[in-house]
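Hi support team,

I submitted a single chain yesterday and got back a structure, but I'm not sure I'm reading the token output correctly. Could someone confirm the output below corresponds to the sequence I sent? I've pasted both exactly as they appear in my results page.

Thanks,
R.
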Amino acid sequence: MNALFLGMSFLFIGNSLIVSSVGVILKSSGMNEIAIGAISSCFFIGALIATISGHRIISRVGHIRSFGIFAALFAIASLLHSLFDNLYLWSIFRLLLGFCYYGVLMVIESWLNEKARNSVRSRVLSFYEVVYYLASGIGVLIIAFNLEKNSVFILGACLIMFSTIPLYLIRIKEPLLPQKSPISLPKIFDIAPLALVTSFIAGMLVNGFFAMASVFILKQGFDTKGVSYFIACAMCGGFLAQSSIGSISDKLGRKFAIILCAGVAFCAMLSFLIFPLPLFLQCTLAIPLGGGIFCLYALALARANDMLKDRSKSVELGRSVLFCYSLGSLFAPLILGILMNEFGFHGFSWFYLACLGFCLLFALNKPNILKRNYKTKPGNMAILHDHE
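Hi R., thanks for writing in. Yes, this is the structure output for that exact sequence:
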């Protein structure tokens, strides 16, 4: 499995660099916030398509070939950004990036869950989280070098292609091909409404952050280094929170953990709205903000699995939670673009306060589920990474 982890490290660095740089590039070219949000949303249209149909490619050709196909298309779409300045073409390229990235995530997470024994599953998935946050943090920090537009996309494409080399050089036994299964959101909502709502809101918050946090910082008059430090601090908060939120949710319930995370993030974002803060304090507050929002998807997935009685439906349930996450990710950049165009950088804060407030109210009205036979530890709560 070492080859898989090495490959995904390059993947996460490249994706983080490309996705987080787009807002900076478009804003520096004079694009308004609505256009930036609309183009960013195309990434998540591709993500939605991947959650619905990407598994068909994996079922047909296997995990290793699927990884190579998705990575190659991702690199091609990245390079095409440097050849064209047409925004309609950029929207198509972003859609392709979203489809390929989420397709690779499906390969990675199904591979890890298939190959990891129950006795070491938590450690394997915890290490997966560590790799994600460290690699994505490196990708975000590269933005501080203020590279030219073409250099960003070429470097990102190279990193993505590097991710395929370890899998092709090392003889490795890939997991069994997954079976196709339908998605029934109404049926899953009857089983786990809090899980689906929290997943939807998590998609809005997490991927809205990666799409528009750069614009939020730039509109306050800070430079690209400020963008890099702000996003990196939020990711640091997510990384730190993952080490403790799993045990808290195991002991006190997923509902309590969801309320805790949403509450911490709500208070952090309220400070942005009330006080005029220098960059240092904004980066400091980004740590609890990231710690709150980046844990919500994991808690939603854990809550959904707690409510499921028929374990044969776990694949359908997982894809339903992922679908809601992707759906929220689709709307967030566009809504944020409209709000920030109308209310300036404060529109970013209002959006987060509204989403987090709704999440808190919805969770408070749902029952807490405590089970003595919880098997889910921090690393067992599968994390979806999109910046994303």
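A quick pointer for reading it: Residues 9 and 134 are 8 Å apart (CA to CA). Let us know if anything else looks off.

Best,
Support desk
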